[in-house]
């Protein structure tokens, strides 16, 4: 596949947002709010958020498919996946595997970063961390190693939920096809991700600098959640358009 297909996938993600702006943003915000809610639960929060991840991907992925097909996204596919015994079992299995892997990566990060984190200091009032001590002890080794290890995990799990529900695959088989489908088309996926990061990340940073430089901090605090909702929606839509390009039998990209 031509690597330039990644740009077409990005354009289709933007198109999905243009076609169904309110409902598509609504599904992404709903999925994100549930993740945040689960994460905030003591002790079991991280596990619950990871178990929700495959169901979230089904909701936002199929919502993007429907938007591109001219239909209004709904929560019916999520409810169907929850009710269907096979889908529910395989999605939960995928979530459990994802939970185990992310917990292992968290342990690796914590272990590698232990010396740097030990040098972080509290502010004089004891209410927060001293930013200077953090800046001088950024755990770069932990960040780079953990980031490198997370890439294959992401390759394995990114398209797994959609393969389970739409491709009728088992969790194990979906991991295999998600990983090697991404690997075979790594240039396409990487280009799409880079375009997304550069355009949205750069635009967000420039807007923040511009507003802060003219003293509109309050306005930025007001609009930033809206911008983040849009960015999150495009990111979720990009997962679907890449799924079409990389794993669908009749790719659109």
TrEMBL record:
Keyword Cell inner membrane: no
Keywords: Membrane, Transmembrane, Transmembrane helix
Membrane-spanning segments: 21-45, 51-70, 91-113, 142-166, 186-207, 219-243
Segment forming the signal sequence: none
Domain of life: Bacteria
Official protein name in the record: Transmembrane protein
This protein's record includes keyword Nuclease: no
